């Protein structure tokens, strides 16, 4: 039996981590902590766990062998590092941390302490993505030329447990990143996973087009980003992410190869479609994407526990997450944040 601790008891903890641990026969949710004490206590009561007053007290319990870190972005590194130093295995939510150095330090801390560090990149566990990776490697659409990937939804102000325009996701100090890293790290990681290639060149355009905070002024982080990525074997593509899609969530990816096109989550029914150069079309009905409104099992928690019990490297290891974050950091560093109005003036 694995005794688990949950640090941060908001939406992602309540919709994925807690129920997915509870569904396993070999896990006991032993301790929880949230800086909102009432929330922590309510969750503890629901799961028969102990509610702690600080996360350090939770980490001091020697019976707890592993923790999920489900807090706001600005505390991922600090809590994960202390947990690893305390000898716990760590499953940290994305985005992994705020800087390259923090991400690298987390990986080093896991290695130094001989513990597993995983990051919640759940897109890798979707059956359609796994099948797409296999088919791409088999050459189903030939050599990859280009790609486009999208992740847009209505934004975190309705998702967060502390919903509203003052949501921490809009707060530059707590979130640090906007949509580019919040949603973009999922798709950056997905492109690396699908293609098995590293990103060697990146550039992003970051904008705040629509979202306003509680004071009615535009939020200080980006709510829309377009990113250009080039892969090591020469293919190039775009990633579009945004928090201002008030229609149906878009989680689609299209891969253009020399022999055809592969479409992922572009069709309601058929999650993987291959259109070949000769006009043939094969449609696979595999699964539905996990959306904010429609939650399904993420697979991340099972992977975490299995990695611990089998003592094996994970496909969502800290090292893999670090490589995806490196691409995100580099895109943000190279980003154009002037806004379109500024650009238009420049072109005249
Ligand atoms: N893998 C995914 O697809 C996915 C989806 C949503 C959110 N997330 C990530 O999960 C993390 C949490 O997001 P959420 O949607 O659950 O947010 P949320 O606002 O619903 O919940 C955050 C919770 O953490 C608590 N908290 C914040 N900082 C804390 C700290 N320093 N110590 C203790 N408690 C703290 C808050 O009180 C709140 O209960 C974020 O980093 C987010 O990016 C990942």
Automatic annotation (TrEMBL):
<dbReference type="Pfam" id="PF22725">
    <property type="entry name" value="GFO_IDH_MocA_C3"/>
</dbReference>
<keyword id="KW-0560">Oxidoreductase</keyword>
<dbReference type="InterPro" id="IPR055170">
    <property type="entry name" value="GFO_IDH_MocA-like_dom"/>
</dbReference>
<protein>
    <submittedName>
        <fullName>Gfo/Idh/MocA family oxidoreductase</fullName>
    </submittedName>
</protein>
<dbReference type="InterPro" id="IPR050463">
    <property type="entry name" value="Gfo/Idh/MocA_oxidrdct_glycsds"/>
</dbReference>
<dbReference type="InterPro" id="IPR036291">
    <property type="entry name" value="NAD(P)-bd_dom_sf"/>
</dbReference>
<feature type="domain" description="Gfo/Idh/MocA-like oxidoreductase N-terminal">
    <location>
        <begin position="3"/>
        <end position="121"/>
    </location>
</feature>
<dbReference type="Pfam" id="PF01408">
    <property type="entry name" value="GFO_IDH_MocA"/>
</dbReference>
<dbReference type="InterPro" id="IPR000683">
    <property type="entry name" value="Gfo/Idh/MocA-like_OxRdtase_N"/>
</dbReference>
<feature type="domain" description="GFO/IDH/MocA-like oxidoreductase">
    <location>
        <begin position="129"/>
        <end position="262"/>
    </location>
</feature>
């Amino acid at each position: 039996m694995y005794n688990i601790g949950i640090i941060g008891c908001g939406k992602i903890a309540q919709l994925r981590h807690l129920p997915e641990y509870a569904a396993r026969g070999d896990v006991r949710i032993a301790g929880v902590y949230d800086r909102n004490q009432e929330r922590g206590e309510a969750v503890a009561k629901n799961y028969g766990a102990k509610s702690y007053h600080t996360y350090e007290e939770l980490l001091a319990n020697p019976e707890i062998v592993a923790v999920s870190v489900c807090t706001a972005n600005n505390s991922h590194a600090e809590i994960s590092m202390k947990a690893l130093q305390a000898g716990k295995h760590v499953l940290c939510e994305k985005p992994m941390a705020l800087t390259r150095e923090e991400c690298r330090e987390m990986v080093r801390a896991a290695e130094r302490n001989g513990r597993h560090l995983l990051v919640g990149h759940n897109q890798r566990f979707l059956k359609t993505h796994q099948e797409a990776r296999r088919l791409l490697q088999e050459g189903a659409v030939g050599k990859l030329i280009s790609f486009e990937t999208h992740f847009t939804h209505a934004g975190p102000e309705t998702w967060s447990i502390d919903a509203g325009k003052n949501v921490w996701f809009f707060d530059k100090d707590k979130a640090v990143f906007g949509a580019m890293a919040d949603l973009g790290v999922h798709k950056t990681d997905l492109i690396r996973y699908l293609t098995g290639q590293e990103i060697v060149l990146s550039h992003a355009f970051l904008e705040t087009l629509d979202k306003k905070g509680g004071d009615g002024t535009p939020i200080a982080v980006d709510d829309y980003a377009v990113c250009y990525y080039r892969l090591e074997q020469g293919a190039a593509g775009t990633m579009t992410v945004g928090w201002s899609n008030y229609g149906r969530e878009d989680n689609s990816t299209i891969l253009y190869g020399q022999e055809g096109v592969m479409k992922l989550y572009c069709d309601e029914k058929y999650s993987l479609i291959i259109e070949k150069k000769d006009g043939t079309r094969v449609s696979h009905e595999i699964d539905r994407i996990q959306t904010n409104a429609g939650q399904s099992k993420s697979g991340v928690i099972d992977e975490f526990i299995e990695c611990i019990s089998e003592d094996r490297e994970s496909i969502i290891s800290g090292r893999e997450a670090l490589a995806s974050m490196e691409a995100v950091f580099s895109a943000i560093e190279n980003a154009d944040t002037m806004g379109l109005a500024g650009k238009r003036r420049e072109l005249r």
